[in-house]
Amino acid sequence: MSQASISNSSTAGAPIQLSSKGTAAAPKLNSQDLEMGNLPGGDTTSSEPDIMQIARVGDIAAMEKLFESSDYDATYTDDEGITPLHWAAINNQYAMAKFLIEKGADINKKGGESVATPLQWAAQRSNYYTVNLLLQRGADPLISDAQGYNTLHISTFSGNVLLVVLLLHQGIPVDVADAYGHTSLMWAAYKGFPQCVDLFLRWGASVHATDEQGFTALHWALVKGSPLCVLKLLEYGSDRFAKTETGKTPATTAKELNTLNAWHRALKECGYDEDAQAITPWWPGASFFLKDKRGFMNKFLFLLPIPLLFMELMIFSHLPLLLSVPISLAVGFGFQWITNQLLEFAPPDMRHLHKTPWLAGIFAASLFLAGLRWITVVLPATFSDHPLLNFGFLLFYGLTGYFYAACMVFDPGYVPKLNGIAEQKAVIDELLSLWKFDESNFCVTCMIRTPLRSKHCRRCQRCVAKHDHHCPWVNNCVGVNNHRHFFLYLVNLVFGIVAFDWLLYHYFSELPKSDDDDCLLLAEPICKVFNVDSYTMLLGLWTTLQLTWVGMLIFVQFVQVARAMTTYENMYGIQDGSASSLGSAFTSTGAPLDPNHPDAAPASAAADPLGTRKGGHQHKKGFLKQWGQLLGVDTFIETATGRSAATGKKTQKKRNPYNKGLVQNCRDFWCDPAPIFGRRETGDAILGGEKINYTDIYESPAAMSFGLSGGSGRRRGGYESVAVEEV
User: Fold this and answer.
1) What does DSSP assign to residue 34?
2) Other C-beta atoms within 10 Å of 560: how many?
């Protein structure tokens, strides 16, 4: 098998037919043949009415008139077996397809050079509203075309995960193979669609299934060399040493097709060496680590910053500057080497420090060391003269510790998952009936309808109601359940740092000055104070330094609470439940499928049918950009200036439907009756003085109904129009 023998067709997204020898051949029906102006049998210059052209543009009135005034009917078939229903399906003409079916069109009629059904034509363009219509009217998704592909295979070629979800919920076997033994998982792996690969694997697709040549999905993933696809297959237990009929292992395939980098990268992420052998930790106690990798890594990396920070402070406080700098760097690199050794064996989603509790551990270490120093040194020296200040610091310190722990431990507001496939299918059917089956309203990972203001967090692998942001400093998401705890954590932290600095001022003022004025950079008066208790001085400077990022963050939070916004909405725009702009809800001429849509007037200009939208490329972030995001610099810049931190351009304003005015917004946030010291019911919140639940809010605020009676979750009563603000 060579790289040249497995190539894409000339048309992006068109299915590829693999011959028994493993070569690639272009499909009989490609997307260039399906454009409205370049269709076989579509000669519009003929003087007679063109039933196919009428079906393509979706002109039902013209079709009715044609049926009444001629011998044409819905069962008309051209010389290639193509029916008007084929053209209506591929151009996403939902109303026309429904009309033709009601007039007696053969729903499973095969036609065209590919000998495919209307369902397969619609699936090739990812027109999942029309696909659903045909399925509901009895179309058979398991019928194969001339190339041996059924509807699930054809849907996989485009990588449209929503269409695949729709078909899987129709009961199609996930491992059904094409004429050459290729499953949909193999096709998704070959095409390089990690989201589809993940979906098939979660649905139970076999990683051990082989095609006629003995190739597994892992072999096919290495053809294109998508690291994410290879990684997913390895995570689900794909055989790393599986051999084809000709004895080729995945490693051999990667070597022949120049995808060794992706192969080795995925192996390393999963804890294997370049020979695909499991890497065994060599240090003492490794057996304990292997029993619970995730638990061990979470605890170890959370506690490790305590000795690191203590040692760094001790080095700078007890050694000359010229000596302390290289020693502290050596200690830092030593700790980094230790963590890197551990990360080699960590679960794949914990291979980077910012994806572990490491940053949360840095703050916990700072909090612990400051508290320890206060109890052992500062308190005994200052309590007699400043008891109230010490009690104030103790209060803020305790509240900071409590709310910090609450932010880490409490459920941020995970949207409940559904109980089984039947409930998922009911939700999908409801969204299709509402013309809202799209990425904005349905989460493919959680298989739920996504409420307004919620977001799926890739770190937590859950949808979070009223998602604000994922905070690495608390190692958790900030959502509707813990947002107020997070804000109180920041407020008490600021007051706690100010109180600690005030105590240190009195502490150093009352200490006798040191006779040692040997300092390299500091002035002599400051040097004498520093040398009295250099460790406490450095610890105070370190804690005061936290006011920089905390100050930016608390400013942003104050502004956003006053505007009734979340950080995600501030950065990426408001989700108000308005009609989606995804092309799958529109015909090929740009007309909305929903007959009640305000713009549902026939359009004359042809447009490329959409619905195959894929996620954008994830560009690797630079060091400064990454730390800017971790410290909240980009959010602060955008909130303070109204300009994007990345581009410097003025951000586009959009009305905020959740804004009830400054006073009411703050009252909703701060006067929420949910307990401050304790967990709240998931999703409960106040909007406009009314109790709501953000886990089941799907309509725009202008159309919402509120007043949850008896906690049943059913919305009743009218919703008053809200104030709006340009944001």
Assistant:
1) G
2) 22
| Non-local CB neighbours of 385 within 8 Å, separated by 6+ positions | 506, 510
Q: Where are the domains of the chain?
A: 176-279, 282-356
- Give, for 486, the enclosing helix (H) or strand (E): helix 483-510
Alpha-carbon span 532 to 522, nearest angstrom: 14
> What residue type is assigned to position 547 of the chain?
L
Q: How confident is the model at residue 35 (pLDDT cuts 50, 70, 90)?
A: very low
The number of C-alpha atoms within 13 Å of 670 and in the hemisphere containing its C-beta is 13
Locus of tokens 């890197």: 340
Instruction: For 102-150, write each residue's pLDDT tens digit.
Output: 999 999 999 999 999 999 999 999 998 999 999 999 999 999 999 999 9
Mean pLDDT, residues 185-200 taken together: 95
User: From CA 599, how far away is CA 722, in angstroms rounded?
Assistant: 25
**Cα 92 to Cα 326, 527, 587, 610, 683, distances in angstroms:** 67, 78, 5, 10, 38
Catalytic choice (229, 270, 446, 471): 471
Closest CA relative to residue 59, chosen from 72, 69, 50: 50
Residues near 563 by Cβ (< 8 Å), separated by ≥ 6? 656, 659, 665, 725, 727
Cα dist from 497 to 360, 395, 542, 550, 688, whole Å:
18, 12, 10, 10, 35
Q: How far is CA 635 from the centre of its chain?
A: 19
Q: Which CATH number fits domain 176-279: 2.40.10.10, 1.25.40.20, 1.20.1250.20, 3.40.50.300?
A: 1.25.40.20
251, 219 contact by CB (below 8 A): no
590 neighbors 605 (Cβ within 8 angstroms): yes
What are the Cα distances from residue 498, in Å, to 364, 396, 397, 502, 721? 18, 10, 11, 6, 43
* Nearest Cα to Cα of residue 270 among 206, 216, 349, 352: 349
Note every long-range contact of 539-542, with CB atoms under 8 Å and residues 24 or more positions apart, other chains counting: 539/313, 539/369, 539/370, 539/373, 540/500, 540/501, 540/504, 542/309, 542/313, 542/366
Q: Which residue has the tokens 């990684």?
A: 231
| pTM greater than the 0.70 cutoff | yes
Cα angle 327-330-332, degrees, rounded to a multiple of 5: 110
Distance CA 279, CA 286 (A): 12
**Residues in CB range of 352: below 8 A, 6 or more apart:** 343
Give catalytic status of residue 471 as yes or no. yes
Tokens of 595: 């007959």
